[in-house]
Design brief:
This protein is of the alpha+beta class. It folds into two domains: 1-73, no CATH class; 75-217, no CATH class. The protein has helices at residues 24-33, 44-47, 50-72, 77-80, 106-109, 119-133, 140-149, 160-168, 175-191, and strands spanning 8-11, 18-21, 35-36, 41-42, 94-96, 102-104, 197-200, 206-209. α6 (119-133) runs antiparallel to α7 and α7 (140-149) crosses α9.
Length: 217
């Protein structure tokens, strides 16, 4: 499987103007000219309007608050994906924005030094983008679970206990409740995302995205 070209489409929330970004150079130009943040995208002319100034300030303040919160906590994915180099996408190539949009990792778009996404990441990215295309809400929990599994394989599956700790260590759920919730996430990945999930109960026990399974249609 190969990706020939990635095209990202942005729409101004004020005038509905649409622009497309097809390369690192175009993304740099877009980033320099447009306001694109948590809640709003504004083209250059609309940024100057009085009606949008307050929303831009609100957007910037919200983003700063979120960045501050993330800086205060340790991302649990760092523990389960210790070898990942990119803290935005954890080497999967995509991330989920606060507006529930699946987008290419900004570090990839900017052409920065980045690990090449593997085949499992391509399957994950395609499935996530397809949910966006048909206007299906992308569950952040399912997104993170699938993103974790992209970095594991049949030879090195993700341990069941590591997933339980990653998602539910800080909850008051019982072990049975944690198990049921995790099983629910896996069911959604299989039935809604149509991802080929590999699972093995004998040693080494664990899960992965099985790139060798025959793709479902």
């Amino acid at each position: 499987m190969s990706i020939l070209k990635t095209v990202t489409v942005y729409q101004c929330d004020e005038c509905q103007k649409v622009t497309t970004v097809k390369s690192n150079e175009e993304f740099k130009q877009f980033e320099a000219e447009w306001h694109s943040s948590i809640n709003y995208d504004f083209c250059p002319p609309c940024q100057m309007k009085d009606t949008t100034q307050a929303r831009i300030i609100e957007d910037n303040n919200n983003l700063a608050a979120i960045d501050g919160k993330f800086a205060e906590i340790e991302n649990p994915l760092k523990k389960i994906l210790p070898d990942s180099k990119c803290e935005r996408c954890f080497d999967s190539g995509v991330w989920l924005t606060p507006r529930n949009k699946v987008e290419i990792c900004p570090n990839l778009q900017l052409g920065l030094n980045h690990q090449s996404p593997n085949i499992a990441s391509f399957l994950f990215s395609r499935a996530a983008h397809q949910l966006n295309e048909i206007s299906v809400w992308v569950s952040p929990f399912c997104f993170e679970l699938a993103r974790i599994l992209t970095q594991y394989s049949a030879e090195n599956p993700c341990p069941h206990t590591a997933l339980i700790d990653c998602f539910y260590a800080d909850t008051n759920l019982t072990q049975d409740e944690k198990q049921r919730k995790l099983e629910g996430l896996f069911a959604e990945l299989k039935e809604v995302w149509i991802l080929p999930i590999g699972c093995r109960e004998n040693e080494p026990k664990g899960y992965w995205i099985d790139v060798n399974q025959k793709e479902k249609t």
